[in-house]
Amino acid sequence: MSDGSTIEWTDATWNPVTGCTKVSPGCKNCYAETFAERWRGIPGHHYEQGFDLKLWPERLDLPLRWKKPRRVFVNSMSDLFHEDVPYDYIRRVFDTMGRAGRHTFQVLTKRSERLAELAGRLDWPPNVWMGVSVEREDYLWRISHLRKTPAAVRFLSVEPLLGPLPAFNLDQIHWVIVGGESGPKARPMKAQWVRDIRRLCIQQRVPFFFKQWGGVRKKAAGRILDGRTWDEIPALAS
What we know:
The chain is of the alpha/beta class. The protein is 23% helix and 16% strand.
């Protein structure tokens, strides 16, 4: 959690929940788990409990202290819609986001079923963007759940992209982020898979953000796609 982030599409991270469990192939080499487990058992460390799920109610008001408007990635080290996060706690997170109206909050989940189940019971302020992860063709169904949410901006995180995606409908989707997996066990991503998604975004007039090629040497691989970076963000960005 920090006021500042190396994640290319956000400005800061806020983790009122940490820890998670794997639900799909994109979780296999989870960067957050790898980081958190380094500190398991170290008394007093934020990740003394490793990657076990933990609620941090003392962090709920943190964005209210940040005066400068910024884009905030919510739970970069967890999933707000994890089945073990109580509804009342999720509601409190949404309450903070509504009160911190100067910021734009980016919430991302792989648990789209629970998102769809709870969406109608939550207040959705206009500064909350909601996204789902779609790492492979057999997870495109998450998009239908995302469409059921009344978020002002609905986005897809196609990362890590693990295979080609067929042409699909981006109706009611406002942003697409694509990236390859990074780290020592990174699975490969083909350039044509990225180009196919970019073409869909151009055709359907959806902003396209290319985050990274990834791989074992992420920095060396960079972010250039066909001679340039692709950093498009929805017009509602603060």
